[in-house]
Design goal:
Elements (H helix, E strand, L loop, with lengths): L1 E3 L5 E3 L3 H20 L4 H17 L4 H5 L2 H12 L5 H23 L17
Antiparallel strand pairs: 1-2
Helix pairs in contact: 2-5, 4-5
């Protein structure tokens, strides 16, 4: 488990299986975000609800941006030479957008959101 100590620093009590599962979930979520960029209403609704879920788990908004270095490293390792400066910047912008939308949900945990009414339609 990752938590903040009294000095506002991260403490790690890592369950490696849980961490791996979360990493896979995050990467699948990023893939889903890319696939729904054409439907901003749906994407924003899902990210808002995801932020509310993180709030319920006591994740603070400032912790979202702290994930970028790990994501940046993982993308670089996976994409190799294809992970250019431009590609890195595009991923960083997408991740910043995701953090912003999740932050809105974290700051408004009591707003009712119905993700099922924000149906995404795939444009081909």
């Amino acid at each position: 488990m990752i938590r903040m100590n009294e000095s506002n620093q991260l403490e790690w009590d890592v369950d490696k299986d849980m961490l791996q599962k979360h990493a896979v979930t995050v990467m699948e979520g990023l893939g889903a975000a890319v696939e729904t960029l054409h439907d901003s209403h749906f994407l924003n609704t899902v990210l808002f609800a995801l932020g509310q879920t993180h709030h319920k788990r006591n994740i603070r908004p400032c912790m979202l941006k702290r994930m970028w270095p790990s994501l940046h490293y993982g993308l670089g390792a996976a994409l190799g030479e294809g992970y250019t400066r431009e590609v890195s910047l595009a991923w960083r912008r997408l991740y910043s957008y995701i953090c912003l939308q999740m932050r809105h949900g974290m700051e408004n945990p009591d707003v009712e959101v119905d993700v099922t009414t924000a149906v995404s339609v795939k444009v081909t």
